[in-house]
Amino acid sequence: MNTWLKIAIGLAAVVVLIIVVVQFLPSSEPAPQLPEKTYYDVIRDDDKRLRAEPNIKEVTASKQPTTVEPVKQDQTQPAAGAKLVFKELAEEEQIEAERLFEMAVASRKMGRLPVLTYGQMVIYCRQIIQRFPGSEFDFKARRILADIPESYRDQYKITPEEIDLSKWPTK
User: Fold this and answer.
1) What is the DSSP string of 120-165?
2) Max Cα separation, the chain?
3) 8 Å CB contact between 85 and 170
């Protein structure tokens, strides 16, 4: 009996020793990562970004020098408080542009889903660009087109002119 008691005490000591060692060893598990964004998180971020008021920073960010010559300082940096100038639309045109824009945004959301594509969104954006040139909706449609992945730009033959945000005058 004495032998069995010694074996039991020895096993208990080994188990306690293993537990203590495991507690103090560094964990091999990776640190917890932030949860991945869900479809709804991405859609909410898209809505915020694509419905935002146009700003001068987007225009200067989309400008890319076409020559190797140095660019003058006043051409690349907007004046403090500068605003974009858009063509005013008649009330009927405004309503139609808003309708097409909302359809483009909805199509953008659907294009993010598996199996669906951005085809309808591209069609709506091109209609806006063609029918309401120089307007705020023209700017927003170009911003939406510039936001889709490069592979889809190639697929729908989106030209650099269609995603150029640098043509708007400022005041």
Assistant:
1) HHHHHHHHHHHHSTTSHHHHHHHHHHHHS-HHHHHHTT--TTTT--
2) 101
3) yes
State the Cα–Cα distance between residues 125 and 166, nearest whole angstrom.
17
Q: Which residues pair with 84 in a beta bridge?
A: 170
State the pTM of this model: 0.68
What H or E segment, with its residue span, contains residue 91? helix 91-111
Q: Residue 138 and residue 131: Cα distance in Å, rounded?
A: 9
pLDDT tens per residue across span 57-84:
777 666 544 433 444 444 445 555 678 8
Beta-carbon contacts of residue 34 (< 8 Å; ≥ 6 apart): none
Of the listed ranges 14-23, 34-43, 73-82, the least confidently predicted one is 73-82
| pLDDT single digits (tens) 135-161 | 999 999 999 999 888 888 889 999 999
Amino acid at 39: Y
Residue environment code for 48-76, b if the CB has 16+ CB neighbours within 10 A, otherwise e: eebeeebebebbbebeeeeeeeeeeeeee
Read off the tokens for 126: 């091109």
